[in-house]
């Protein structure tokens, strides 16, 4: 797909699609609840649809309406899943694979799960190890620490797990398995990752406590089906936040964005870089805060992004790197080695693609230094003086790279071609339509 530079300021309002993490969890926890769960503003991305298909295969009736953004889950209780008659396909979704494994470890039936080419390369030992410690029978079929995974019934016992990584998927997997264990289960992480599982389990009636970076669950909760509205995904809003900041004289309003403090690292970084974002209409539902975010073009400078900030902006690092490329001075990213284990090696591909667009980048083992070119950006959206060069970008079918470089193309001095651009379907099916709407 071909992208052209912005020829005028971006203006408009985006109804940000539902949060991917929360959409997955609503289907999973709703399936294990007693009675119906009605989910509004569900994200109809391919990843969340994979989660729905997996639960349908285990006997849960799930109805989709309103262009798949309204979901009715007929929950069957904590022990109401039935044995799937074929392998569970998690598609491209790490969240589906890791969270569902925790649930499957507690079932009285055997199951196997797999996913696409990218999922087959992603590390699963990070969940196999703690689940095995709980007594689960889980193994990687090819003994390479990846899917396909085989899970057989077993007796689980609660553990206190010290996770070596700040990963919400690992934490959630262990907590979900903890619902079926004997005794309490707790997970301590090196830094706090997104806490949607803890908040949602609590909202459905489970006893889950959080103290610092430790979350603890009491087993055998009775979960009650409920109505919930999924906040807009800050990871999707991120592309338009950055576009609005980058293109001179732009002003964009992003509606009903989730601003949970375990997800809002990008807003902290933008503030640190000198960006203007105004919060309006602040609301909160079951512990999940939301706001309308108004973003304006700003003259940005480089910053340092490291430590406990990393897990709270992990999926936004590709677009933050693009933003940094258009800022004045250097931006340093450290402690982000986790980015190598996503849908692609995002650290390598961010650096490679920014360089293809004329930005000088010094890659490191756990991050990079980006030498921003803001000083070359003349302060008008005209093609002359743009900080980046148009280039051919290989997304490696990674949705976050495709979207990040579609935004980079706005600040480039010629056409940019993005390969496999349709992969945005994973987390933001209407991304290109929404992007286009800001230039009309
Ligand atoms: O729990 C979740 O919903 C997610 C956790 C993060 O992964 P890790 O747990 O691997 O950090 C994130 O990158 C992913 O997009 C969604
Ligand atoms: C890493 C991501 O998702 P997942 O781990 O669920 O595949 C992502 O959406 O950027």
From TrEMBL:
Compartment annotation: Cytoplasm
Molecular function as annotated in GO: 3-phosphoshikimate 1-carboxyvinyltransferase activity
EC top class, as a word: transferase
A GO-annotated cellular component: cytoplasm
Domain Enolpyruvate transferase: 7-435
Active site (record annotation): 315
EC numbers on record: 2.5.1.19
UniProt-listed PROSITE patterns: EPSP_SYNTHASE_1, EPSP_SYNTHASE_2
Chaperone as UniProt keyword: no
Record: residues binding phosphoenolpyruvate: 20, 94, 122, 169, 346, 400
Any Pfam family matching the protein: EPSP_synthase
Entry's family note: Belongs to the EPSP synthase family.
Function: Catalyzes the transfer of the enolpyruvyl moiety of phosphoenolpyruvate (PEP) to the 5-hydroxyl of shikimate-3-phosphate (S3P) to produce enolpyruvyl shikimate-3-phosphate and inorganic phosphate.
Protein name according to UniProt: 3-phosphoshikimate 1-carboxyvinyltransferase
Lineage: Bacteria, Bacillati, Bacillota, Clostridia, Lachnospirales
């Amino acid at each position: 797909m071909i992208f052209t530079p912005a020829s005028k300021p971006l203006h408009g309002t985006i109804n940000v699609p539902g949060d991917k993490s929360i959409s997955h969890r609503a289907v999973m926890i709703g399936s294990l609840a007693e009675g119906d769960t009605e989910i509004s503003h569900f994200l109809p991305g391919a990843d969340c649809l994979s989660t729905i298909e997996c639960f349908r295969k285990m006997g849960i009736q799930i109805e989709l309406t309103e262009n798949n953004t309204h979901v009715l889950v007929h929950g069957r209780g904590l022990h109401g899943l039935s044995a799937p008659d074929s392998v569970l396909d998690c598609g491209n979704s790490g969240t589906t694979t890791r969270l569902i494994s925790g649930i499957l470890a507690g079932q009285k039936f055997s199951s196997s799960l797999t996913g696409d080419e990218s999922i087959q390369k992603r590390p699963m030992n990070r969940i196999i190890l703690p689940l095995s410690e709980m007594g689960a029978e889980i193994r990687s079929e090819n003994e390479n620490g990846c899917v396909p995974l085989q899970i057989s019934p077993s007796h689980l016992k609660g553990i206190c797990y010290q996770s070596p990584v700040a990963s919400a998927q690992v934490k959630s997997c262990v907590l979900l398995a903890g619902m079926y264990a004997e005794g309490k289960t707790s997970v301590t992480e090196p830094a706090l990752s997104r806490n949607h599982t803890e908040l949602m389990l609590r909202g459905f009636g489970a006893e889950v406590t959080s103290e610092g970076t430790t979350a603890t669950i009491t087993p055998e909760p009775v979960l009650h089906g409920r109505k919930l509205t999924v906040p807009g995904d800050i990871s999707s809003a991120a592309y338009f936040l950055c576009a609005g900041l980058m293109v001179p004289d732009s002003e964009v309003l992003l509606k009903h964005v989730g601003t949970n403090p375990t997800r809002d690292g990008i807003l902290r970084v933008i503030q640190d870089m000198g960006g203007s974002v105004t919060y309006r209409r602040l609301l909160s539902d079951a512990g999940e805060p939301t706001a309308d975010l108004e973003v304006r073009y700003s003259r940005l400078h480089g910053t340092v992004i490291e430590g406990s900030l990393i897990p709270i902006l992990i999926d936004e690092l590709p677009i933050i790197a693009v933003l940094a490329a258009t800022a004045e001075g250097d931006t340093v990213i450290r402690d982000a080695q986790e980015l190598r284990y996503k849908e692609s090696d995002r650290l390598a591909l961010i650096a490679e693609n920014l360089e293809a667009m004329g930005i000088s980048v010094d890659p490191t083992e756990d991050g990079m230094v980006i030498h921003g070119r803001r000083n070359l950006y003349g302060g008008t959206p005209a093609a002359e003086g743009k900080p980046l060069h148009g280039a051919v970008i290989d997304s490696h079918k990674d949705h976050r790279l495709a979207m990040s470089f579609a935004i980079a193309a706005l600040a480039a001095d010629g056409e940019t071609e993005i390969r496999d651009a349709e992969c945005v379907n994973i987390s933001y099916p209407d991304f290109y339509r929404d992007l286009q709407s800001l230039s009309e």
